Amino acid sequence: LPWLKQAARDLRLWIVAGTLPLPPAGQPEAKARACCLLLDEHGEQVARYDKLHLFDVEVGDRQGRYCESDDFAHGSRIVVADTPVGRLGLTVCYDLRFPELYGALREAGAELISVPAAFTALTGAAHWQILVRARAIETQCYLLAAGQGGTHPGGRETFGHSAIVDPWGRVLAEQAHGEAVLLAGRDAVEQAAIRQRMPVSRHKRFFAAAEPRLPGLEQS
């Protein structure tokens, strides 16, 4: 973490750092959580999100079986934080497949949502861009989707294709492979107009159950 904080200070930038294996705050002996940290331009931690949805699946690639819960515990709260470019909701990787989480972030005031991810090459080719664009359209938020790509120890392959998608589902910037810095402007006026012309959040007729599946699910 010190180098991340120093990078934020040196660059004078806010940084979304994920996924980091860290135990819950104040519980150093507890099982680690796959967490995402938000650092401000002074290197101070503004928010922490612990991944809610763990990747316990079977995939038809070389690795075959993934069981994230072997190494991590899930989180219990959604996280939205104010930034200089808007109110940011935090998610991680497999969370992208759960629209209820993204809807909850929108209801909590999110205008942008970040999703650092390591989708497998197989699932990424099938679903990554579709899901990123769908979550942007559903929530009418900007999606900041940082996708790890390449070949890793043990033959694991990840898909890449980092992208910034606007609230209308348009891909504003994309990098298929390799390292890159993606930049796009946020048009707050246009975003507000999209939400006004198509007020989907007011038209909802189906809602999450009163009792969430995760005990103690909280908002911060």
Mind sketching the topology for me?
Layout: H1 2-11, E1 15-22, E2 33-39, E3 45-50, E4 56-58, E5 65-67, E6 77-78, E7 80-83, E8 86-90, H2 99-107, E9 112-114, H3 121-139, E10 142-145, E11 149-151, E12 157-159, E13 162-165, E14 171-175, H4 188-197, H5 200-203, E15 218-219
Parallel strand pairs: 6-15, 8-9, 9-10
Antiparallel strand pairs: 1-2, 2-3, 4-5, 7-8, 10-13, 11-12, 13-14
Helix content: 10-25%
Instruction: Compute the average pLDDT.
Output: 92
Helix/strand order, N-terminal first = HEEEEEEEEHEHEEEEEHHE
**Structural class, judged by helices and strands?**
alpha+beta
Tally of discrete structural domains: 1
* Outline: globular
Low-confidence stretches: none
Q: Termini, distance in Å?
A: 22 Å
Find the CATH superfamily: Carbon-nitrogen hydrolase
CATH fold-level label = Nitrilase/N-carbamoyl-D-aminoacid amidohydrolase
Largest sheet: 6 strands, mixed
Number of strands: 15
Tell me the Rg in angstroms: 17 Å
Kindly report the spatial arrangement of strands forming the biggest sheet: 7-8-9-10-13-14
Instruction: Indicate the proportion of strand residues.
Output: 25-35%
Determine and state the CATH class. Answer: Alpha Beta
CATH architecture level-2 label: 4-Layer Sandwich
What does this structure look like?
The chain has 220 residues and is α+β, with helices and mostly antiparallel strands. The chain has one domain: 4-Layer Sandwich (Nitrilase/N-carbamoyl-D-aminoacid amidohydrolase), CATH 3.60.110. 24% of the residues lie in helices and 28% in strands. It is built from five helices and 15 strands. The chain has a six-stranded mixed β-sheet with strand order 7-8-9-10-13-14, with helices on one face. The longest helix is centred in the middle third of the chain and has 19 residues. The protein is globular and about 50 Å long. The chain starts with a helix and ends with a strand. The model has no long low-confidence stretch (mean pLDDT 92).
